[in-house]
Amino acid sequence: MSIEVKIPAVGESISTGVVSVWHKKSGDFVNPGDALFTLETDKVSTEIVAENAGVLETKAAEGQEVKIGEIVAIIDDSKIAPEKAAPAEKKTDAAEKKTKPTGEESKEAPAPKQKSTGAEVLSPAVRRIVEEEHLEPAKISGTGRDSRLTKGDALTAARNRKSGGETVSFPETDQAKQDRQSVDGRFTRKKMSPLRRKIAAQLVMAQQTAAILTTFNECDMSAVQELRSKSQEAFTKKNGIKLGFMSFFIKATVEALKAVPVVNGRIEEEDFIQNNFYDIGVAVGTERGLVVPIVRDADKKNFAELELDIAGFAVKAREGKLKIEDLQGGTFTISNGGVYGSLLSTPILNPPQSGILGMHKIMPRPVAVNERVEVRPMMYLALSYDHRAVDGKEAVTFLIKVKECIEDPKKLPLDF
């Protein structure tokens, strides 16, 4: 009997994906739970596993865009797994005595144990990076158990090559043939990864479907820095995690959304949907692109719970373990370009949301305080919003509310 392998529904608003890597090839026997391929969407990478045992026949090529519900492979469960070769029968004692040499020659030297190169067995995550970056596993030193390659080994090798470090050669593949330098060596043409293509399409769609406008302000970080410094030791000892700035901005954002509810809504065809809950997306940069995991019910969580959520998402994002449900349903997004040194930016909306707050680098700057010039740690804030749903007055009011909560943290519920 032939069993169809279809692209599963991986979340609302996701209608297509890209088959980035096949972990099993046509003709391979697969068991239930074996990773068949990786599906890349604009939100997350998902490994699709076999639900039945049998021989696989693929119907979609690597790099092909597929629709939800589309058949990409068939598993023939009428075929059984190939039997392993039976071990050779032991010789009888008499035969051993007859054929075995005597004296010193009878001592058998143990076969030298070959050290694993780490290239023989690759996890799906490592294999995906190896194939997309065109790495040769045999030339990468594995740091895992039995010298196996880890995801970190593969990412390091890819970075080394891109930065001009140790060059890792790779076999001639169809993808490799597309990655070519120009004749004069002035540029290199490289095909974009499936995830990057989807991110690019999402950003263009956001620009084309919303009337995006950005308003700016600045906030004095002195009070937050002082409060954070005084509370850090006790907070870390009590909760096992450090108190960061992001939790303050999530709290301030919730207060601003309560003050200006329209920013917490979205346009859906001819209707406006007003969200009465506060699921805040926090943008996280990874080796494979930007993802936005969601802090659920941010208004109901204390500072420790927010920091634990943020730290947990950062780890999962770096390890490629984010699930699609971690990225769905946000009502507003915060992006912190300051961690990369950005002084000012105009963030792009995360559709279908109507607003995104941009944080930036904290810089000591001279400012007027009580008619005197003082040097204060200042941060520029940017709010990009959908002008179809949010008026300028509402956007400015929202941003001023965030500023007030940061400059006077006593306006926040300080539940340390």
Count, helices: 9
| Share of residues in strands | 25-35%
Most strands sheet: 7 strands, mixed
How many strand elements? Answer: 21
Unreliable spans are 85-92, 94-119, 165-177
Estimate the global geometry from the Cα principal axes: elongated
Order of helices and strands: EEEEEEEEHHHHEEHEHHEEEEEEHEEEEH
The average pLDDT score comes to 83
Specify the oligomeric state: single chain
The helix/strand class is alpha+beta
Terminus-to-terminus distance: 60 Å
- The gyration radius over C-alpha positions equals 28 Å
- The helix fraction, in percent, is 25-40%
Textual characterization of the structure:
It is a single chain. The chain has nine helices and 21 strands. With 416 residues, the protein is of the alpha+beta class. The model is unreliable at 85-92, 94-119 and 165-177 (pLDDT under 50). Strands 11, 14, 17, 18, 19, 20 and 21 form a seven-stranded mixed beta sheet that branches. It starts with a strand and ends in a 9-residue tail after the last helix.
Give the topology:
Layout: E1 2-6, E2 16-22, E3 29-30, E4 35-40, E5 45-49, E6 54-58, E7 64-67, E8 71-76, H1 93-99, H2 124-133, H3 151-162, H4 174-178, E9 180-181, E10 188-189, H5 194-209, E11 212-220, H6 222-239, H7 246-259, E12 265-268, E13 271-274, E14 280-282, E15 284-286, E16 289-291, E17 294-295, H8 303-318, E18 332-336, E19 355-359, E20 363-369, E21 372-386, H9 392-407
Parallel strand pairs: 14-18, 18-19
Antiparallel strand pairs: 1-8, 2-4, 2-7, 3-6, 4-5, 6-8, 9-10, 11-21, 12-13, 14-17, 15-16, 19-21, 20-21
Helix pairs in contact: 2-3, 7-8, 7-9
